[in-house]
Every structure is written in structure tokens, then in C-alpha cells.
Amino acid sequence: xxxxxxLKRMLTGALACLALALGxxxxxxxxxxxxxxxxxxxxxxxxxxxxxVVRTIEERFPSILAAEQERIAAEGDRLAAAGGFDPSWxxxxxxxxxxxxxxxRFDTVVEQPLPFWGSSVxxxxxxxxxxxxxxxxxLATNQYGEVRAGARINLxxxxxxxxRRANIQRTEIGVSVATRSMExxxxxxxxxxxxxxxxxxxxxxKLALSQAWLDLAQTRDAGLARRVEAGDLxxxxx
Length: 238
Hints:
The protein is about 50% helix and about 15% strand.
């Protein structure tokens, strides 16, 4: 209830600021002729119409702008989650110039995660030259090095779901929620703004009608005064 009241007050203030900025609309204030719809009529310059109010609310109302920023942040989270499927490049190098087994090793590998069953493909190159102990003989290569490629396919772990895919699904839900929240804020603000606008127009029409009644009463009183002065009417009638 307090949030709705706060929203109403903000919309009322926004309408007042628009009225001051665009000029007092004849459709709402000071109009004594037959009423004309401010939405459908070709109103003169300076008349504040409902489409202008709606456009200003959608472009500037704080709750809508805040919801839009939340949606943009959710889009950023989704983009960051999609980065989990970017290729990775790892490179290591080791040089042992002095010791019982002087040697040098170089290893580089590129891995590309795949969006299904937690699998990935990779390709790499390694070079190992020098002396290696017997238990590390697998580190040695010929003078041209070794090229390797392969694929990793999970059997159980990370098969149905893994961290990367879970993050993407979570952020997509976040984007959907933020988008609907922004739409809800826009609908609520426009609805209440429309109510405030027509309340404002109605108040102007009431003022115009009251002014017309006052003018009519003053005109009638002036006519009666002249008749009384001329002796055509008793002062009691005035």
C-alpha cells in the first residue's frame, strides 16, 4: 500500500512538472466551450496530451529506469556465463640448464568446451629435449616435438548438467525475470499516470465550468443592477 501511494505521489509530481514545462493546457483549464478530447483532437501548441505523458513516463520514470538497469545487468550476467564456453589456451615451459638431468620442456594446449554432455575437444603441442630420468621418460620427444588432439566425453559426471550450462540457464532465467519486472513497472506506472492525468484534466474541466458559472452569475447580477437603477425592477429581486 505504501509503495502504491509513493508511486501515485511521484506521478502527480511528474504531471505537475510537465504542466509547468509545456504550458497550462486549455483542454483542462479555462475552457468554456464544448469539451474536446485531448487525445484525439488536434490540440494547439502547449497542450499536454496523454501520449506525451505516457512517453515521458516510459522514458524518465525512476522505477522503470531502475528495472531497465536490472535487465541490462542480467544481460551482462548471461554474457559472462556464455564466456564459460570460450576456448582456453594453456602454455607451460620448464628449463633445467644445470643438474643431473639438464633438459627443457615446452607444452601448449588449446581446449574448446562443447555445449552438450559436458564434453570438449583439445589440440596441443609439446617438446621435450635433454636428459630425463627413467621414470620421466615420457617427457622426452624427438627434435620436432609431439602434436596431439582429442576429445573428452563424460560418462557420468557433468553429463546431464555441468557448471557452465547451469550458469547459462540461471542467467537466462534472470534475464526473463528482469524483463518481466520492467514490463510490470512500465504497466503500473503508465496505468497510474493515466489515472492522474485524467484526474488532472477533470479538475481543469471543473474549474472551467465553475468559472463559466461565475461569469454567468456576474453578468446576470450586472444586468439586474442596471434594471434596479432604472426602476424597472425592485431591489429585492436583485
